[in-house]
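Example for tutorial group B:
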């Protein structure tokens, strides 16, 4: 039994930028949305830092594939984390937090066959994507305002600190 888990973010994709299905293929078009481009770049940064791939499916603990808008699979969480947009535009990450325990049926009498596994890893990946999105959105907003952007990164005990500054005269 899988345990579908959602990680809700503060990221909201404006209604006019939400993907619309292609009238011919039915596939969602994410190319025309600046917010979705930033979200994809945030996923690409995690893939760059941790290895992995970007796709459109994640799998549960039983190996069933689930379609979603975007998904990321890393070496740390190979089943993947799906990305979907709720009706109100809020971005939600979805993953399976259960793992099937390998043992003989006799060992399962009266016990669950599933355990929670790697939840902290999945949550850390979700938080990193959300942080990357926030940084990239600030950079894009400052660029559009005509500012020159400087990004400084420094390691911290919790991971990394990113400082984005814009200089010059805005429009």
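The residue assignment follows.
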């Amino acid at each position: 039994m899988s345990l579908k888990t959602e990680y809700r973010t503060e990221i909201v994709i404006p209604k006019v930028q939400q993907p619309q299905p292609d009238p011919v293929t039915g596939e969602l078009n994410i190319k025309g949305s600046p917010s979705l481009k930033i979200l994809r770049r945030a996923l690409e940064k995690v893939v760059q830092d941790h290895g992995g791939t970007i796709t459109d499916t994640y799998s549960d603990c039983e190996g069933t594939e689930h379609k979603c808008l975007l998904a990321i699979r890393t070496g740390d969480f190979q089943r993947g984390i799906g990305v979907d947009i709720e009706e109100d535009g809020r971005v939600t990450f979805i993953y399976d937090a259960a793992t099937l325990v390998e043992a003989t049926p006799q060992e399962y009498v009266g016990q669950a066959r599933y355990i929670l596994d790697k939840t902290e890893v999945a949550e850390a990946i979700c938080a990193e994507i959300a942080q990357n999105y926030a940084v990239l959105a600030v950079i894009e907003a400052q660029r559009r305002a005509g500012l020159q952007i400087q990004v400084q990164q420094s390691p911290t005990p919790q991971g990394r600190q990113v400082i984005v500054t814009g200089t010059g005269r805005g429009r």
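The chain has one domain: 4-146. Compare this with the pattern of hydrophobic and polar residues in the output above.
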